[in-house]
Amino acid sequence: MFDLRAYLLGLCVLLAAATITWLVSVAKRDASIVDSLWGPLFALAALAYALPFAELTARGALVVALVVAWALRLAIHITARNSGAGEDYRYREIRRRNEPNFALKSLYLVFGLQAVLAWLISLPLLAAQRGAAPLGVLDALGLALVLGGLVIETAADRQLARFKRDSANRGRVLDRGLWRYSRHPNYFGECCVWWGFGCLGLAAGGWWSLVSPLLMTWLLLRVSGVALLERTIADRRPGYADYVRRTSAFLPLPPRKPKVTRARVDLET
Prior knowledge:
It is a single chain. By secondary structure, the protein is mostly helical. The protein contains 12 helices and no strands. The protein has helices at 4-28, 34-50, 58-82, 89-97, 102-121, 123-130, 137-165, 185-203, 211-223, 226-230, 233-236, 240-246.
């Protein structure tokens, strides 16, 4: 059921979208606008995979609707968050390391790489369009994971945005709401979303769909998510070390109680 032609069509669409956005970034001198493109890349992939069908299956229509809703939410959130802030510090550092001619290099270092990663992760979206198996329990699990993850990451992003808007919180650590149970609840929600899409692709018969959530989990934990943020955040927020000691890094868990150390007293007789 793996349709190589449809998959390659998706790659062409994503590379075209990345190239157009790259041209805008060169004019604005802001490579960080690629973050706003991340969600829409998946919506474009899902639509490209659905093109050959005059009528979508129930699973195909469900997946397109879910990924478009997820992509719009993420794009609106990131665009609003970054509006007027200039180029993000992560991309300023990439720019510094790759001068001269970063404008040209960013086409493949930033935008091309983003498009290829999205293409690889979009495998469940392809499987859902190609599979003819009837809806079942695995689809219900996938739907629950996508919706649950979407609710979690939306709530976490709103809590963080509200916290940052209050100038009294400058330099402080958000440890309330979902952030009381996980240092990165937004990334946990994102992970749930992609395991949900993986389940939907698996239900359609595409076992290779599980490459997607595995890759996304690795990226969130080891590359662009938790590991990247925690490399520098302790330097910018003095209370973060204590927050780390009591709060789970990723999975939402009850806060750990501080260890109580008892001083040893030597009694003379």
